[in-house]
UniProtKB/TrEMBL annotation:
It comes from the Bacteria. Keywords: Endonuclease, Hydrolase, Nuclease, RNA-binding, Stress response, Toxin-antitoxin system. This is YcfA-like protein. The keyword Phosphoprotein does not apply. Belongs to the HicA mRNA interferase family. GO terms for molecular function: endonuclease activity; hydrolase activity; mRNA binding. It comes from Streptococcus oralis. InterPro entries: HicA_mRNA_interferase, HicA_sf.
Length: 44
C-alpha cells in the first residue's frame, strides 16, 4: 500500500530532514551533512 502525503512527510522528518518551506502541496526539505576533514600529511 502506498504512503500518504502525511506519512511521507513524517518519515522524512524522522530521518533527519528539515522542512525549509511549503507552498501549497509542495514541501521543500534539506538535510545538513557535517564532514570531518583531517590533515593526513601529519600521519606517518
Amino acid at each position: 500500500m502506498p504512503l500518504t502525503d502525511k506519512e511521507m512527510v513524517k518519515l522524512v522528518l524522522e530521518n533527519g530532514w528539515v522542512e525549509i518551506r511549503q507552498r501549497g502541496s509542495r514541501h521543500h526539505f534539506k538535510k545538513e551533512v557535517f564532514l570531518s576533514c583531517h590533515d593526513f600529511s601529519s600521519w606517518k
